[in-house]
Amino acid sequence: MNTTDHAQDGSADEVAGIVLDQFERLLAQHLSPHVLAACDGAVGGAAWPADLWRALADSGLPLALVPEAADGIGLEASTAARLIRRCGQAALPLPLPETIVGAALWAAAGGGALDGALTLVPAGSPVRITQRADGFVLDGRTAQVPWGGSVAVLLVDAIDAAGVRHLVRIRAPGTVRDTRHNLAGEPRDALDLTGCAVAAADVRTVPDWIVEGGVGSVAAAGAFARAQQMVGAMETCLASALDHVRERQQFGRPLAKFQAIQHMLAEAAGHVAAATASADLAAACWGDPRFVLATAIAKARCGEAAGHVAEICHQLHGAMGFTQEHPLHRATRRLWSWRDEFGSDALWQEWIGRAVCAGGGAALWPMLVRLRAGAG
Amino acid sequence: MQSFRFSAEKLPAEAEAARAAVRAFLDSEVEAARFVPHRTSWTTFDAAFSRRAGAAGFIGLTMPEAYGGHACSGLVRFVVTEEMLAAGAPCGAHWIADRQSGPQILRHGTESAKRAILPRICRGECAFGIGMSEPNSGSDLAAVRTRAVRDGDDWVINGSKIWTTNAHQVDYLLALVRTGEPGPDRHGGLTQFIIDMAAPGVTVRPILDLSGHHEFNEVFFTDYRVPDAMMVGVEGAGWELVTEELAFERSGPDRFLSDYRLLVELVDRIGPEPDRFQAVETGRMVAQLTALLGMSASVARLLDQGIVPGVEAALVKDVGNSFERAVPEIARRLVPVEPSLTAQGEAFREALGGVTLRAPSFTLRGGTREVLRGVIARGLGLR
Ligand SMILES: Cc1cc2nc3c(=O)[nH]c(=O)nc-3n(C[C@H](O)[C@H](O)[C@H](O)COP(=O)(O)OP(=O)(O)OC[C@H]3O[C@@H](n4cnc5c(N)ncnc54)[C@H](O)[C@@H]3O)c2cc1C
What we know:
heterodimer; A: alpha+beta; Butyryl-CoA Dehydrogenase, subunit A, domain 3; 50% helix; globular; B: Butyryl-CoA Dehydrogenase, subunit A, domain 3; 4-stranded antiparallel β-sheet; 11 helices; binds flavin-adenine dinucleotide
């Protein structure tokens, strides 16, 4: 059944519950360890789980964050963030997070609803756009585009001759120069966009709430998605470590009974809690002018946490966690990749730090207050 | 995995209104030079400031009106306290009473204790200290030996408390003492009492901290008599009560804003054009602080709902204390100065000097880092 049917009548909480339940069912049905292995480019897999994508598309989930007026489900951003976290938790080998935020960004730019899987082009070397009599033409080579060779639509920030950014939808991607993978074996393709023609309807003004301090809207949306995904992957690591230390016995008792082990897990839990709080704040700021700063903070905080949580959880799993057989690596290899995608934690920290220092000490507190006003 | 009960709802409009009001109050205080923004906001004891804050309606915010309070939500109090800390207001004379002793008496005290004490707390006229630790009972709080023995309608207390912050200037202590046998779980036989510091039988000996500052003390009880009416909760239920009190003690923004002014002075000292190292580290601290503010507000919301979020409070304090301890370490790497307490006029050197000397206490007071991690581990189902 299509979830959009429910959006009209139920309360926001009910709709959220229905959508999240539906996602659970789809994951249980389609996302087996076999599928995960078949999609893992690090061990020679290269599958695009078409059945799973079709089921997701039929459910309307890719349009979770698109307003109902633009034919989406119109979920609250906090619920959409939970969906994206669930993707991270489950190591979903599909660009559903990219599609959820990209479709919503495109709708916010007045572009209407999108069809099919979508990806976000990271801000590497800039993509230029030039107007011609019959539309626009692009120029630029991009790298590390998530599932760039498999999706129907790419979103990119392109810069015109005057230095103005435009949000551009590419429906006929240029040639795939090279297919590579991140550390988790997720496709990260290099695309050549030189000479790629786009119609006027595919070039939109970037929504003003997502433009700040030189950060592109697509990069900000991507950073938002990765921050939420990292929260989910960290939850998986922590849950796995908790199970493991309760089951594994050494010195005649479960590892969980050793204080050193307890303290390591407490420290990891602190990082997960702080990362979650920062990601919650970013979700609460979706669609408003604080979004870029809140996302910068979330990406920085989640990235920092990801390093600690992955390290601690591997240590707790011992040699077993260092194998291909144990699923821990599905979460940790993603954390090590996602930390650096759409801007590393250091890059976002630098960006925040420059903004804070430019404002001076007295402006810091008002900034911290403004960020949370009406967002708890 | 058991998940934590943090949530991210919006701050209510009344909280934002309170923010505007407390800012206006603090601005007028600073303008009239009634206080100088202080780096140890919540431990600086200034009875006159607390009376003005009480008169202006910023103490006892969550207390019922019947006891002189303002019947606001915990989030209003959260906003007022974070503004006080950010402004460096000298809150030491009302902080403990407002944060934990008052709420504890409201929930578990006798009617006469509530009537006698709560309105004075709300007016900022009544300071409290925490009487938990003893010479042989630090992290192992269940080991307290100070004993209360019933005598008619009174209890007679003998023993001592130690590390009691501001015992030399408070009106009351809320003390945990032994009234019976510990029992198999060691948590039995403890009871909380309100101790009147002006009554006979209590003496206070100062203890100087490592920088020579007098803040904590040892407190001796010699046949000190306390009436039944000053018992908090029922006899023998002290352990549960103290656990509740600690959730209030551990979760507030004071657990990571103790030295917020150092961060402000660091940003000013770096100036508007940081190098990359300075920018990265400053951004990292601000991202950590933002997350903490969210976690702490979440706990305020849980407390409001009558939940005792012991584990979440321990998480706020542990993550918060780690942040507080890191700030001076990072600051000294970003700006090459020698910290000093007597570098007149060099605000940053003085701030760094003061924090360097105070920082060891952050991860001790209110429960050590190790104890908090034990509490968190229990919450994770490991103990
Ligand atoms: C500035 C300051 C103000 C204070 N104010 C007050 C106050 O107003 N009222 C009050 O009652 N108390 C107060 N305290 C006391 C504070 O609560 C205690 O210092 C704290 O509970 C630790 O007790 P302790 O100092 O006896 O250390 P101990 O308990 O002896 O611990 C020493 C070290 O051993 C570690 N340790 C202890 N047990 C374990 C264990 N089982 N596993 C692993 N590690 C362990 C501790 O974490 C610590 O690192 C204050 C302390 C300070 C520093």
